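Complex 105.
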Amino acid sequence: MPCYIEPTKDGGTMFLCGKLGPHCAAEKCASVSGYLCDFPVAEGRTCDLPLCERHAYQVAPDLHYCPGHLVLWKAFREAGGVERELGNVVPFPARTGKPENGELF
Ligand SMILES: [Zn+2]
Ligand SMILES: [Zn+2]
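Predicted structure with zinc ion bound:
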């Protein structure tokens, strides 16, 4: 029977044994997982790492990321990735002729 280690509010730990599903996948964590990482890893697929309450980082309502993917997500967002993806349209056609010098008309 698998056993789990759950932190208690007073800073101690509590053992839980039973068929409670996979352990949290975060490093050095042996808690019961109640969440799955929702980070998209491929078309129609998500990371799906099992995560406990403390390691499932909520990035949007009902959307949780594992610690590793949270770092990726933050870097992506800070680099302006969200806007860039939304603005990912057809590039401007290459201009021909004289370069513009600010004088349009
Ligand atoms: Zn955990
Ligand atoms: Zn993940």
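The mean pLDDT is 86.
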